[in-house]
Specification:
The complex is a heterodimer of chains A (about 290) and B (about 350). Chain A is an all-alpha fold and about 290 residues long. Chain A has 14 helices and no strands. The two termini of chain A are about 20 Å apart. Chain B contains 9 helices and 20 strands. The C terminus of chain B is likely disordered. Chain B starts with a strand and ends with a strand. Chain B is about 25% helix and about 30% strand. Chain B has a 6-stranded mixed β-sheet with strand order 6-7-8-3-9-10, sandwiched between helices. In chain B, strand 15 and strand 16 form a beta hairpin. The chains are: A mainly alpha (about 290), B alpha+beta (about 350). Chains A and B meet through helix 10, helix 11 and helix 14 of A and strand 6 and helix 4 of B.
């Protein structure tokens, strides 16, 4: 009934703004979108291919660039699964149980969103750096965290910590605990309840969270920059590598590597759109099961 | 299997949901827990199922202590108000769930499970919907699937939480007849929660009326309807007119117009007689305020002329058609079957 397309033209007019206002608002939105999103994205690819395919290919097959890609992939491969496990268990605990300190936990999950990534990086330097609290002990045992791969992974985990949990908590809360109770009464064990009832109900939400988490893990700059030490071929991730190339005025190579990150962003966007639709369907099915009849 | 509930108390924070509740359900019985929202009926059902742990008191199944027994070991079937079907499973898988989660040793083989599920699908008359998902079923169909799922594991007790609460009136009626019939066939001890007195009186063997965490009365539908023990039960089980009244002689009552009367008499709208002329001293003069003739029981509203009290009356259709009442007309009425609640013992006339 509230769908204007189904109404007569006259009734449609009563529900919408006059044509000039509509055009103005739509136009403004489009200009904004083009200026801030489309133009930069296109320019990344234009700049990357400015000097031809050969330069592009050389830039992305450069040993240092390849090392950066490997490190980025490794970081994501460690931090995403860890945050997946953490995110699912945290949202399961928060959405399906009541316990003391629940609100504190919810606040803590949001912490990485509210802290500047540079600060998060600095915290690790202060903790694990040579002058840090645990620095001397680590050095004595021959362990290197800051300015090495473990520091990069830790910083990335911290920054990407909220994505899966943030996505799942509202979804699980909307679904309530009735299905879990039904499964329990029917004799299912705790694991069976989780594996056969809770998880399948939120699977698209999980994927959605993972995609976002992965995009951030691969693209993170601030926190990683502080802990990495920028050692070429060793502790440079892709975003850091782009910065170094750019600072050396090697624009074509910088944009070539950046274009890979841009493609990751496009892929993420596409996957996000598809998954969003599925998540919405799940949430709607929840709402329907309460509303219908 | 019989259920025995002893002195169960359950608090949520400072709110007392159940206050020392005792209840005995005999084997094979169908009992209704009836009460307004917040009366503790659902909490009591959940305590019996094990989904809620009582603060004090005990639950016995067939004489065995079960208070601390885990939900999944109680062998109860539970039907939720909003069905709680597994939305990502087909009807078939929903019903089979309880059979497939059993430990390896006790689990039936696939063929036997299929057989049992098909049997249940036939019982709930949804044979051809086995491959549908819950989202594609109507409310009534979902509730029947929920029932089949609960029955699949052959529970010793069937517990139903407002099973028809979310359905529309017609489906509700059909389903409650169906539930009664089903119970007569399989005779599993069943307890169901409802806030609808009509549903409780129509379906249950015995009705347990609850209010504010306590049980007000237990009895067969006839007992509780004919002999309510207190004003709460009386007013909860149906509409009521309150008349100030005083005893006059052994059996007679008079209904003075003022509040100075020593007691209150409770009268059902169906026990108000309306006449064109007075033939006794107890007849009260009244004016017709409102007439609603459609439906099985025509409803009339009257205003007492001496104290302006508004009285509701349900007339048998025949009487209604004979009287041809018009709004504004003056008539006479007489309350009968007046219920008076003293301290403790109820008495009727």
């Amino acid at each position: 009934m509230h769908d204007p397309s189904r109404l007569s033209p006259a009734a449609k007019d009563a529900l919408t703004e006059p044509a000039p206002v509509r055009w103005l608002l739509t136009g403004l939105a489009l200009v904004f979108l083009a200026l801030f999103l489309v133009v930069p994205l296109v320019s990344v690819f234009v700049q990357a291919l400015d000097k031809g395919w050969d330069t592009y290919w050389t830039a992305i097959t450069d040993p240092e660039a390849l090392a950066a890609m490997r490190l980025t992939l490794l970081t994501a491969a460690i931090s995403v699964p860890l945050n997946l496990v953490f995110g699912i268990s945290a949202s399961w605990a928060i959405a399906k149980f009541t316990f003391r300190g629940k609100n504190l936990l919810i606040t803590l999950i949001d912490l990485p969103f509210s802290v500047s990534p540079v600060i998060s990086g600095l915290i690790y330097v202060l903790l694990f750096g040579l002058q840090g609290w645990l620095g001397p002990w680590l050095a004595a045992h021959g362990l290197k965290i800051v300015f090495a791969v473990p520091g990069i992974v830790l910083a990335t985990i911290f920054v990407t910590f909220p994505f899966v949990a943030r996505e799942l908590i509202p979804l699980m809360q909307a679904q309530g605990t009735e299905e879990e109770e039904a499964a329990l009464v029917l004799g299912a064990s705790g694991w069976q309840v989780f594996y056969r009832v809770t998880l399948p109900n939120v699977i698209w939400g999980v994927l959605y969270g993972v995609i976002l988490c992965n995009a951030r893990a691969m693209g993170e700059f601030g926190a990683v920059s502080v802990v990495s030490g920028h050692i070429r071929g060793l502790t440079n991730t892709m975003p850091l590598h782009v910065e170094i190339l750019y600072n050396e005025y090697n624009f074509a190579a910088a944009f070539a590597v950046a274009s890979l990150l841009a493609m990751l962003a496009l892929f993420t966007l596409a996957a996000k759109t598809v998954l969003e639709r599925k998540v919405r369907r799940d949430t709607k099915a929840t709402a329907d099961s309460f509303v219908r009849e | 299997m019989g259920i025995e509930v002893n002195k169960i108390t359950k608090k949520f924070g400072t709110y007392t949901a159940l206050d020392q509740v005792d209840l005995e359900v005999c084997s094979g019985e169908l009992v209704a827990l009836l009460g307004p929202s917040g009366s503790g009926k659902t909490t009591l059902l959940r305590v019996i199922s094990g989904l809620e742990t009582p603060d004090a008191g005990s639950v016995h199944f067939a004489g065995e202590e079960a208070t601390r027994r885990h939900v999944r070991e109680r062998q109860v079937g539970f039907v939720f108000q909003h069905y709680a079907l597994f939305r990502h499973m087909t009807v078939f898988d929903n019903i089979a769930f309880g059979l497939t989660v059993k430990p390896k040793g006790q689990r039936l083989d696939k063929g036997r499970i299929r057989e049992r599920v098909n049997q249940l699908l036939h019982l709930i008359q949804l044979d051809n919907l086995a491959d549908r998902y819950p989202a594609h079923l109507s409310g009534g169909q979902r509730q029947r699937v929920a029932l089949a799922r609960a029955l699949a594991t052959e529970p010793r007790v069937l517990l139903l939480d407002e099973p028809f609460g979310a359905l529309d009136a017609k489906v509700r009626q059909e389903l409650r007849h169906w539930l009664r019939k089903l119970h007569d066939e399989i005779h599993v001890t069943s307890v169901f929660v409802t806030h609808d007195q009509e549903e409780a009186l129509e379906v249950a063997d015995r009705v347990v009326i609850m209010n504010e965490g306590r049980i007000e009365q237990i009895g067969t539908p006839e007992e509780v309807y004919e002999n309510p023990v207190n004003p709460f039960v009386f007013t909860f089980l149906g509409n009521a007119n309150l008349f100030p009244c005083r005893k006059a002689g052994a059996d007679d009552l008079v209904f003075p117009s003022v509040e100075a009367a020593p007691t209150i008499g409770y009268v059902r709208p169906g026990d108000i007689h309306i006449k064109r002329s007075a033939d006794g001293t107890e007849d009260l003069e009244a004016q017709v305020l409102f007439v609603q003739g459609a439906g099985a029981l025509p409803r009339i509203e009257l205003r007492r002329l001496d104290n302006d009290q508004v009285v509701k009356a349900d007339l048998p259709r025949e009487t209604y058609l004979q009287l041809e009442l018009k709004v504004g007309e003056r008539v006479f009425m007489r309350p009968t079957h007046v219920k008076i609640f003293g301290q403790g013992t109820p008495e009727g006339t």
